[in-house]
Amino acid sequence: MVLRYPRKTKGLCNKCRRLRRLYTVTVSAFQNILYTAFYVLSMLMLSFHLSHGVSSAFQTLGLSTSKYEKIINFVGKSIAVLIPLIFASIPITLYVR
Questions:
Q1: What are the C-alpha distances in Å from 45 to residues 6, 32, 36, 69?
Q2: For 29-49, what is the mean pLDDT?
Q3: Do 58 and 64 touch, CB atoms closer than 8 A?
């Protein structure tokens, strides 16, 4: 699918035209189920990556002790769920809308 955007942007500054085109392309892309599904799947993969990355970062820094292990796992899983969920809500909202 080739994404095209309308060129009717008379009377707007160059920055405003670029932003309007970006918005139009983004909205039209996420109205396609394939783009939306790919993006949500990518966010799922990001979730797995973050889940591993946060706990590994604490371990690399030497802060992963038995005392803080439960807290680090909770923080890691929370970040791994929240960030991709927030990012995935954008294309889902645009698709449903």
A1: 33, 20, 14, 24
A2: 95
A3: yes
How many other C-beta atoms can be found within 10 angstroms of the C-beta atom of residue 76? 19
Rounded CA separation 44/80 (Å): 9
pLDDT in tens, 67-79: 888 998 899 999 9
Give the model's pLDDT for residue 6.
56
Distance CA 51, CA 70 (A): 14
Tell me the C-alpha distance between 55 and 33, whole Å. 34
**DSSP SS3 for 54:** helix
